[in-house]
Amino acid sequence: MQDIFGNNTPVSLDIDEWWYNGRIIQKQDHPILSKYISFADYDDVPCNTATHSTKAEAVKYCLDNPCSTPTRHPHDYLGGKRYYKIVQEDGANIKLLFHGIDGTKVLPVNKWVRAKKVENAMDGVGTSYTSGIHIIDGLDEARKYLSRFRRNDRIIVECIARGLRKKEKSRSAVYLADEILITNNMAL
């Protein structure tokens, strides 16, 4: 269900931490603590912390108890530079073009995905490299790269990336990332 800020699902800030409806949800890994807590993302009021048995319960609580004037929004936490990814548009889904992650090519929105790192992976011309998720630095560069594709189901989406390295011998501003988060599935 959509929150008052337009998010259809909680936005992943980090592993086991989400932002939803102006509140932060955190998973706790301690045997005597509640499994999840949530609290208003607002500096000038009491924390208003609630405990939850499940993530679904925490999400429902956030929907029922929004913080309508949060101090920060997800992009404030995620920060960093925006990169771009060329993906396949498939109905309501966006998909990776070549190799899947964890058995699927479908890319989630607002959730970190991690590439399986393979040392000495081979590209199409026999050059070895450490594998990762291909992203492009700069929207203009991404548009130039997109023009190489003949199919019309390819689009550019914005992402945030971690664990970057330049893809050697690439003709464009292509980087390989260990992890990406697609910020929305709107074509640019």
Structural class: mainly beta
Total domain count = 2
Q: Please, what is the oligomeric state?
A: single chain
Number of strands: 14
Give the CA-CA distance, first to last residue. 25 Å
Global shape: elongated
Main sheet: strands, sense, barrel: 7 strands, antiparallel
**How many individual helices?**
3
Output the radius of gyration. Answer: 19 Å
Helix content: 10-25%
Strand content: 35-45%
- Identify low-pLDDT runs: none
Mean pLDDT: 85
Summarize the structure.
By secondary structure, this protein is mainly beta.
Structure, explained:
- The chain has 188 residues and is mostly beta strands.
- The protein folds into 2 domains: 11-76; 80-182, no CATH class.
- It is 12% helix and 36% strand.
- It is built from 3 helices and 14 strands.
- The chain has helices at 55-64, 74-78, 139-146, and strands at residues 11-14, 17-20, 23-27, 36-40, 50-52, 83-90, 93-95, 106-107, 112-114, 121-122, 128-129, 133-136, 154-166, 174-182.
- The strands form 3 sheets. Strands 6, 7, 8, 9, 12, 13 and 14 form a 7-stranded antiparallel beta sheet that branches.
- A hairpin with a 5-residue loop joins β10 (121-122) and β11.
